[in-house]
Each structure stands twice: as C-alpha cells, then as structure tokens.
Amino acid sequence: SWSAVPAGPPDPILGVTEAFKADKDPRKINLGVGAYRDENGKPYILGSVKKAEELLTSSKPDKEYLPITGLPEFTKKAALLAYGADSEPLKQGAVAVTQSISGTGALRIGGAFLARHYPHSKVIYLPVPSWGNHTPIFRDSGLEVRGYRYFDKKTVGLDFEGLKADLLAAPEQAIVLLHACAHNPTGIDPTPEQWQIISDIVKERKLFPFFDMAYQGFASGSTSQDAFAVRHFVSQGHQIALAQSFAKNMGLYGERVGAFSLTTADPEEKARVDSQLKIIIRPMYSNPPLHGARIANAILGDKALYSQWEGEVKGMADRIISMREKLYSTLTHDLKTPGEWGHIKNQIGMFSFTGLTPPQTKALAEKAHVYMTGDGRISMAGLNSSNIEYFAESVNAAVRG
Ligand code: PMP
Q: Which segments of the protein form a coiled coil according to its record (predicted)?
C-alpha cells in the first residue's frame, strides 16, 4: 500500500540533536534545542511547578475528561495574563478562549478557525524568517502563506522599512502573524514605538493581527512588559487572535499547556465563536490534557506561587541576558574576533541569530563539537559559565577560518 510514499526530509532542528547525541567528545555543546537549560546545562523544573504538583497530588484530583475547550479556571487566568486586567474585551466578557495543545495547537486551532470562518481572506503573512513550523501549520490549516520582510542581514537587525513596505502592500484584510515578543529565530523585536507604527499600518490596511506569544516573561523577565504589543493592539481597538504557550515560561514543554483566544465584539458574538471553536476541536482531539493545565492554573491562581513563578521566569531571562553579555565581551574584548557582535547583546529571548555562515556552523560542528541550526541560530540557554569560554573560542576560530 505504501510503496509510493516518498521519504520526507528530516526535521532540521531535531537533526541537530541527533548529531549532538552521536558525538562522543566531552566538550560537545548543543545549542540547537529550544528548551531552557540551567547553569549546569540541565533541564530545569521550576520550584513553583514542583510546589503546584505537590499541592495537586495531595488534593487527589480525579482523571475525568476536561470540557472540549479545557479547564475553564485555567483559560480565564491565561487570558488575564495575556490581556491584562484593564483589557476592555476581557472586562466585557468578549474574549473567546480555549485551552490548546501548547502553542503549536493554539496556532493550529487559530489557523483552522480563520480558514473556516474569516470571510475576508485566506492569506496569512509571516515574518521572514519565522519559526520553522509556522509555514506547515498554516498551510495545513488551509491558509495561503506569504512573507513580509523582517530580518536585515546587513545590520543583523530589524528591517523595519521592509516590514512597513510589505504590510502596506499586503491586500486589505489579509491576516498577519506577529511574534508578540522574543522573535524566534532572530531574537529581534520591534521597539514600543515601532509596534505603535505597525498597529497603525495594520489598522490602515484592515489587516487581521494574529499574535503568537510563546515567550511571555522570557524576553524581559516581566510578563506585563512582554505583553506590550498584544495589549497595545487591543487598546487600539483591533480584534486579534492570540496563541499562548506555557512551554517556556513555566518550563512545561512536554505537558503541552497553551491557550488560543479571539477578541470579539460582545458576549453574544463570543458565545457564537466559542461554539465554533468546539466544532473545530472536537473532531481533532476531543478535549485537551489535564495535568499541565492544572499546574498552570495552580500557579496563576495562588498569590505566593504566582510571585515565586514571576521570580523564576525573571531568573531564566536574567541568566540568558548575562550569557549574552559574557559572550559579547569575550568575543569583542578578549578574543578580538573579527566582525561586529553587538547584536548578541541586543537580541531578546531564548535565541540569538549570530550571523555565523553555513560553512562556519559546519566547521563548529565538525571541529569543535558545537551544534546549532544551519542558519546560525543558537539557543542562549544552552550556554553556561562552564562552556561559554570554549564556545567563544570555537566561534573565534571558525570566524578566523
Ligand atoms: N511559536 C514559537 C515562535 C515558538 O518558538 C514555539 C516553540 N518553539 C512555539 C510557537 C510552540 O511551542 P509549543 O507548541 O511547545 O508551545
């Protein structure tokens, strides 16, 4: 039956991990994976998560099915975390929200909802580059994927002129995907002033903004600061779609905790949208997993756990920021590595687009046992005080050729 099925290409990011695992050198470093690592290079379970799990275990909860749209207490708190207590649509009861299989599932529900119910366009614009999974998610949802300029190779910064020109040239009412903060893979975010201009263009062109917020708290260390773009758009009267993930900010990667929401005109419209979200979700996976949503709900709903969590998110963000500073100063001041490295310090979130070329990344893997994606993206979280000097020296050697 399957003799005509062609072998598909391997996943580019998982391929990096395979090569890393096969390498036996003790100095090896994996900077491909998008998961936080602690100062010892180990996966990190947040203290607030451990406590929430202890509380859950002792309360001996049942294992019944959740409703189709998930744990209602959790989705309410997730929306509050993103939109903020002052959000008008939230106060009016006009935000339709459903639990999702982490951020990926939220994007997929959103894509499917827009493909089925957004009457004005089937075209979605993604930044170039964007997270590698965005294109297949939206294509498989039934949307047509196009790109808008985002990254400027020359400055290793934001191509804001290109971005504005492309959004202004987009057909009216097209959908535009925006990374709410900590853009993956570039680590480059618009400034608050630039977000205001983007909001004006989106309004002028009547574009539909779809925010992907996979790193709330991870960029600046503050969940409200990282929600600036989402809250600004909502305050400007935009109706938005929003995908949220708790993989990074709570370290709940494998628990698959997320939420998808749409702001609507009023509670009556919200109820109709809710009913259609259920119709999309029911035949996909019936209802979402329970455990992770309970953990997130416990943290978001308890004052002490919440403030512990905020401190832990900030701790992760700060450790990454300190690695950026250390890497920058080692390359620039200690090793005098040719080139401009300021972007490493200025970029935001888990990743840095280093500007290393494919031959340089290949040399780093083969000669130094340092693994990253072929586009030169590194996960800053994979660096720590034990490996950062070796990494900087290896980069220095690769750049000097
Ligand atoms: N969006 C972006 C931009 C991401 O980087 C990620 C994680 N790599 C996701 C969404 C979704 O991740 P998850 O499904 O694990 O929440």
A: none
* Measured distance CA(43)–CA(379) in Å, rounded: 13
pLDDT of res. 59: 94
Give the length of the chain: 401
The whole-number average pLDDT for the span 358-364 is 94
Reply yes or no on whether the pLDDT at 11 is more than 90: no
Any idea which fold 65-301 has?
Aspartate Aminotransferase; domain 2 (3.40.640)
Asked if 212 is an active-site residue, the reply is yes
**Could you tell me the residue ranges of all domains in the chain?**
12-45+317-400, 65-301
Pocket-testing residue among 245, 248, 250, ligand 1, by greatest number of atoms within 8 A of Cβ: 245
Read off the pLDDT of residues 73-122 as tens digits, 9 standing for 90 and up. Answer: 999 999 999 999 999 999 999 999 999 999 999 999 999 999 999 999 99
Going from the C-alpha of 381 to that of each of 117, 139, 251, 319, the distances in angstroms are: 39, 30, 12, 8
Distance 389 CA to ligand 1 centre (A): 29
Whether the per-residue pLDDT at 10 is higher than 90: the answer is no
Rounded to two decimals, what is the model's pTM?
0.96
Distance 257 CA to ligand 1 centre (A): 11
Show Cβ contacts of residue 127 under 8 Å, excluding neighbours closer than 6 positions: 147, 148, 149, 150, 151, 163, 177, 178, 179, 183
Q: Is the pLDDT of residue 15 over 90?
A: no
Out of 51, 248, 270, 326, which one is annotated catalytic? 248
pLDDT of residue 14: 77
Catalytic choice (131, 195, 309, 341):
131
Q: Are 363 and 203 in contact (CB under 8 A)?
A: no
Looking at domain 12-45+317-400, its CATH class is alpha beta
Catalytic residue status for 248: yes
Based on the residue annotation, tell me whether 206 is a catalytic residue of this protein. no
Tell which residue, 236, 252, 324, has the closest CA to residue 244. Answer: 252
What ipTM was estimated for this complex? 0.99
